Amino acid sequence: RSGTVPQTGMFLNELNSVPSDSGDEKTLCWQAVNSERNISQLFDAVIFTIPVPQFMGTDSAVGRPLGSYLSLLQENTDIFKKLEQVSYHSSFTLALFYDKLFKHMESLHESEVKYFVKNKMIKYVSVKPSANKTAEDCGTITIHSHRTWADKNTHLSKAEAGQLIYQEFKNLVSSKASSSNLPDPVHMICHKWRYSQTRRPYPGSPGAVTLLQNPLFIGAGDSYTISNVGGCLSSAEIVEQLLKQRF
User: Fold this and answer.
1) Which of 118, 125, 194, 202 is the most exposed place for a label (fewest CB within 10 A)?
2) What's the pTM?
3) Concatenated DSSP letters for 64-104?
4) Mean pLDDT, residues 90-96 taken together
5) Mean per-residue pLDDT for 71-97?
């Protein structure tokens, strides 16, 4: 409705508080910098949906924007301590792409999703058959790790975790079929979610929080609520109200 065209695909490398161009030295705004494209823009408000531990750098500085915003947050001791309490689960997912059918794949497809309650590494496996159902394209098996296993193995690279998960999957398959009947996938992709689902949200789960008033800095997303679609939609509605109160 505003006619604003959002820009995506630009990583936020740096976020600094600077005087606004309103002429009032006390009124501040945000200077957002993208180093790759050499772009610097000014904003009256910034909304962070980045997982709190990621931009706080409590686990590592990977993916955390640089800038003065973090030192400004530290000035409000109460909010900063609450931010430090937020924590996330991790998760690994391995996708196997096959060009040959095998018996265990067919049995998995009957239920589409199979849970492994007693397995400590693999939580469940899902099968997506080929839409064409041709011999050249038989489908994909996606293997999802238990978050407890992932939490203990965040030090693993995607390649390392992928090999461990694949070997465990082969062990599970061999319990129902000969391992010699298990074809190698034509391609494997492992994805690592360092911040997958909220383990402990911001105290009180408010949905969104005004972290700074001047310049306006709002924290939103599942760091402040529960990790599902309903939680994120609720967070967006609260952000809308916070912006309307200001503007």
Assistant:
1) 118
2) 0.82
3) --BSTHHHHHHTSHHHHHHHHT-EEEEEEEEEEEESS--HH
4) 96
5) 95
